[in-house]
Amino acid sequence: MNELAALRGRRVVLGVTGGIAAYKAVEVCRQLVEAGAHVIPVLTSGAQKFIGALTFSALASEPARTELFGNKDDPIPHTRLGQSADLVIVAPATARFIGKYRAGISDDLLSATLLATRAPVLIAPAMHTEMWEHAAVQENLEVLRQRGVSIVNPESGRLAGGDYGEGRLANPAAIVLAAAKVMARGGDLSGLRVIVTAGGTREPIDPVRFLGNRSSGKMGHALAINAARRGAAVTLITTNPLSGPEETSRSISEIVSVVTAQEMYEAVLSRFSSADVVVMAAAVADFRPKVMSPEKIKRSLGAPEIYLEPTPDILAALVERRDRQVLVGFAAETQDVAEQAAEKLRSKGVDLMVANDVSQSDAGFEVDTNRVIVLDSAGGVENLPLQTKTALADVILDRILNLI
Ligand code: C5P
């Protein structure tokens, strides 16, 4: 099937902001029209310093718009554009524009259209490497992602002024393909029942102490939220409460709070037969104290000897009982990540293993970003770049979808 088919007949507002890459938006416009979309360009005043509205008008389906006010035929163009759009793309999106959109400021036609629309939004940032890597820009993008905005990451390459680095606008064809995916996505996981486990289990030593680990649950939560956004019926079994807006938790069909590996085992197993996919993102304790002291262990009695026993292996139990279910495991390693993960994939018998090196400070436990290797049972090995857990969740879900 034509991979751009989802764009046919769609009303696409193409926002262009003021960066050197604005000239490439002409190509985005042309390719969108070629794919059958009805394209309405909207240029900010900054964009017009780099490229003329006339160029877009000549190629698009309607004349380019530039003004919020002063149009006699259409006194409120932003609401009309926003309401009637099937998709809003901003390419290139400058750091300034991204900040403005995140803050909800609407002081020109494009920013007002973005606030007035309920259509999906796709943003293709372009800026110098230093700006792209700035915490403010990354935080703004993360907030936008959490609001459901799709982002086409910039590429590495030559930048304005002869510099070289990450920040160059993604290739126009990649932007158009991402737009088609957004249009096709809406519900690409609909009809699927997905169980996601998240967080680290706590194995009690006495009523106040436990054996635990540093997992924050963020990766599992991002997987659950994104799977729900993409139409799956999601059961989230978690040791950590889900943070974020009320709508986020409402989008998840069932949230089950658990503490220990045993509780997680029971929660997963009792729901397994009706699931299509289980993603074990939780860091489940491998060992627990053999007995829990009913009273707080007293310091005055000296250091206790604590005997450990293995917890039930949830994934192993699922592999034994599976009929059609896709099973995904996670591996947190501190050395030889790829080899350890390949071995774990084999020994556990899962379809996908997502491995991360938790010895790095920007990946794995407690942080919002992750860098992982995805291994599949056919021998595929994919090294994914550092990205937010939200973005990574969509990549992992794409891989799961490929297996179904
Ligand atoms: O062997 P290791 O604990 O590193 O394996 C990690 C994977 O196995 C994770 O997906 C984790 O959720 C799962 N696991 C499990 N039951 C356990 C321990 C880990 O399902 N008792």
Q: What's the CATH class label of the largest domain?
A: Alpha Beta
Helix content: 25-40%
Q: Do you know the CATH topology of the largest domain?
A: Rossmann fold
CATH superfamily membership of the largest domain, which one? Answer: CoaB-like
Helical stretch tally: 15
Report what the structure shows.
The chain has 404 residues and is an alpha/beta fold. It has two domains: 5-185, 3-Layer(aba) Sandwich (Rossmann fold), CATH 3.40.50.1950; 193-403, CoaB-like (Rossmann fold). Helices cover 36% and strands 23% of the residues. The chain contains 15 helices and 21 strands. The strands form six sheets. The protein has an eight-stranded mixed beta sheet, with helices on both faces. A five-stranded parallel beta sheet has the order 2-1-3-4-5, sandwiched between helices. A two-stranded antiparallel ribbon has the order 6-7. β1, α1 and β2 form a beta-alpha-beta unit. α1 crosses α9, α5 (95-103) packs across α8 and α10 (218-229) packs across α15. The longest helix is centred in the last third of the chain and has 15 residues, at 389-403. The two termini are 18 Å apart. The model has no long low-confidence stretch (mean pLDDT 90). Cytidine-5'-monophosphate is lined by residues 261, 280, 282, 284, 286, 311, 313-315, 329-331, 344.
Pick out its properties.
single chain; 404 residues; alpha/beta; Rossmann fold; 5-stranded parallel β-sheet; 36% helix; binds cytidine-5'-monophosphate
